[in-house]
């Protein structure tokens, strides 16, 4: 027990039973913990940040009978929005986003339903109802997390943590009360927050994804600045619930993703009412008498960078995220951060999550050069807890993590983009199989399927090992989740092509691929 070294004789021991199942093995036993009528502030593990990664790590460590504390504190957004325990994913990320996306998909389903025989009376959409129900669900998740921490005997402090030294944390709550905690091991899992570029008027007038999901009233006509995951997903569901939406793209959409797929994502959105302003950047914003925001922007298509203007009820800044390291006072520790990104550098002593300080680790969005995805933070947190308390030695595998962008036509992928595969293996090294297909559910309502597209990138020689899979179509997350397992298992063109499809599905189009880009043949699927 790490804490024992710090404790004087007035502390007494308690015994905790634990049972757990890790890597196919059962672990159980009794551990000694020490307490002083609740006043002992020494812990085996202190986790700063109660989001996806932090909660997973804390709960896993507690399941081994360790004495664990979690600090979670939400600094209100620039517009004053705040939320409860659970971090970005639960409160201002994956969960409310996917539910709003679902609301938009239902709007499309209502339209389709008429062709399938449903006699649908005039429908209307209420942002107020959608938002209240989603916010209610999120609050239930906040509560669920609190209960789970309590059930697992994890001490939860709704307080902001900062380091006094490598082993000492100051926890400052909203009322200004300070608590000093000692941690044998400390995990930093503080995630990030949206950035707002330094544009006159922006800080006062724009909202970010930290506000959007908590709006009680519809944002109305919206300008979304940015063109990556957050921007395109939010623009997609806002348009899907009937709003007038414009996306302002500074350079390219979905930087880092396969650009052929990214362009299809945007083309589908454009065909479904989203306006795109390419090569444009906001320059100035101000509120006008009508309550709207006048946005002056530079249009890169004009050689003289002439300023143009338009008016919006809401401007959503989706221009990236910045790590929450500043408040941690890392200067009081030996933890090194990357000066250009502000993120924590890991990888010391051959451990991906170990920082340059002996007892301090970092997981999730705060860690340099790692995918900013919830399942990544959760898996890294659990594996770290197991290693910290010597239950297992498994390291996190950050390679080839599948992901999905929940745009109106969803885009899921795993592995390399075509650009990266070409760069890595050269044109002669890879084969690209592709196909445009029509989801069966699009046929009867005569929906446009011109962007439903699949691309399978494999090595050209030998068994044609899969190096990248890209899917645009319904339920992309569900489709790619399964193929991501095949990818990890080293799937090749021959294993995938010898898999019998499940008919009639969109995913079966993957196991039916047979046209290479190199052949120049028409990749349009016809018939079954
Ligand atoms: P977080 O979940 O951000 O948690 C960090 C917590 O620490 C926060 O509660 C923060 O307030 C708290 N904190 C910060 N500083 C301190 C401090 N000093 N003391 C105490 N507490 C502190 N990922 C997916 O996989 N799928 C998706 O569909 C998806 N959608 C997303 C949609 C949006 C709009 C956004 C913004 C993100 C989305 N993500 C998605 C990414 C995902 O939410 C993050 O990767 C994930 O939440 C990171 O978890 P984390 O534990 O690193 O940090
Ligand atoms: P990104 O950093 O991926 O993208 C930022 C976007 O903003 C880019 O399009 C960038 O353009 C643009 N931008 C930056 N600065 C400016 C500026 N001053 N003016 C105009 N445009 C600007 O951030 P996101 O917030 O979209 O996503 C963060 C992370 O969150 C993602 O990497 C992802 O891991 C995670 N996430 C995951 C989701 C999922 O799994 N479905 C959903 C949402 C988020 P440029 O390319 O020109 O730099």
CATH architecture of the largest domain: 3-Layer(bba) Sandwich
- Poorly predicted regions: 1-14, 32-38
Shape: globular
The whole-number mean of residue pLDDT values reads 93
Report the total helices. Answer: 14
CATH topology of the largest domain: FAD/NAD(P)-binding domain
Strand residues, percent: 25-35%
> Any idea of the CATH class of the largest domain?
Alpha Beta
Rg, rounded, reads: 25 Å
What's the assembly state of these chains?
A: single chain
Q: Write out the distinct hetero groups bound to the structure.
A: flavin-adenine dinucleotide, NADPH dihydro-nicotinamide-adenine-dinucleotide phosphate
Q: What can be said about this structure in brief?
A:
The protein has 528 residues and is α/β, with parallel strands linked by helices. It has helices at residues 52-63, 87-92, 94-115, 127-151, 202-205, 209-212, 229-240, 259-271, 374-388, 418-425, 440-443, 476-488, 493-497, 508-511; strands at residues 12-22, 25-35, 42-48, 68-71, 155-157, 159-165, 168-173, 178-188, 192-194, 222-225, 245-249, 275-278, 280-287, 293-299, 307-312, 314-317, 321-323, 360-362, 403-405, 411-415, 430-436, 453-459, 466-472.
């Amino acid at each position: 027990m790490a804490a024992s070294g710090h404790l004087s004789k007035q502390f007494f021991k308690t015994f905790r039973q634990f049972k757990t199942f890790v890597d196919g093995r059962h672990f159980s036993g009794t551990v000694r913990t020490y307490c002083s009528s609740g006043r002992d502030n020494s812990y085996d593990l202190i986790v700063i940040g109660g989001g996806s990664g932090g909660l997973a790590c804390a709960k896993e460590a507690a399941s081994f009978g360790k004495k664990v504390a979690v600090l979670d504190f939400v600094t209100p957004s620039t517009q004053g929005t705040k939320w409860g325990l659970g971090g970005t994913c639960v409160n201002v990320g994956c969960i409310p986003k996917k539910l709003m996306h679902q609301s938009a998909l239902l709007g499309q389903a209502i339209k389709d339903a008429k062709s399938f025989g449903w006699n649908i009376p005039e429908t209307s959409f209420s942002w107020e109802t959608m938002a209240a129900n989603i916010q209610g669900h999120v609050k239930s998740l906040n509560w669920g997390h609190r209960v789970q921490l309590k059930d697992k005997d994890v001490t939860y402090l709704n307080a902001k943590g900062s380091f006094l030294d490598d082993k000492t944390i100051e926890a400052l709550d909203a009322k200004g009360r300070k608590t000093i905690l000692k941690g044998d091991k400390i995990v930093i899992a503080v995630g990030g927050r949206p950035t707002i570029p330094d544009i006159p008027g922006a800080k006062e007038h724009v909202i970010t994804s930290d506000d959007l999901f908590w709006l009680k009233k519809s944002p109305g006509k919206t300008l979304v600045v940015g063109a990556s995951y957050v921007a395109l997903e939010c623009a997609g569901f806002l348009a899907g619930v009937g709003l007038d939406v414009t996306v302002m793209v500074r350079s390219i959409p979905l930087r880092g993703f396969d650009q052929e797929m990214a362009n299809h994502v945007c083309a589908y959105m454009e065909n479904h009412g989203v306006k795109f302003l390419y090569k444009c950047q906001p320059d100035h914003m101000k509120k006008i008498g009508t309550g709207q925001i006048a946005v002056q922007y530079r249009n890169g298509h004009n050689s003289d960078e002439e300023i143009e203007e338009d008016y919006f009820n809401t401007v959503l800044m989706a221009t990236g995220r910045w790590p929450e390291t500043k408040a941690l006072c890392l200067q009081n520790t030996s933890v090194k951060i990357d000066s250009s990104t502000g993120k924590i550098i890991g990888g010391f002593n051959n451990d991906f999550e170990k920082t340059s300080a002996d007892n301090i680790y970092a997981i999730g969005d705060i860690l340099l050069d790692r995918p900013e995805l919830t399942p990544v933070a959760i898996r890294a947190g659990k594996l770290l807890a197991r290693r910290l308390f010597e239950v297992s030695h498994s390291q996190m595998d950050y390679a080839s993590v599948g992901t999905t962008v929940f745009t109106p036509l969803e885009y899921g992928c795993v592995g390399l983009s075509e650009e990266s595969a070409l760069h890595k293996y050269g044109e002669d090294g890879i084969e690209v199989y592709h196909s445009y297909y029509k989801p069966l559910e699009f046929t009867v309502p005569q929906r446009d399927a011109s962007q439903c597209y699949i691309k399978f990138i494999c090595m050209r020689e030998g068994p044609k090992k899969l190096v990248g899979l890209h899917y645009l179509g319904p339920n992309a997350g569900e489709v790619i989740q399964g193929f991501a397992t095949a990818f990890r298992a080293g799937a090749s063109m021959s294993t995938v092509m010898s898999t019998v499809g499940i008919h009639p599905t969109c995913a079966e189009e993957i196991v039916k691929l047979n046209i290479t880009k190199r052949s120049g043949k028409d990749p349009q699927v016809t018939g079954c």
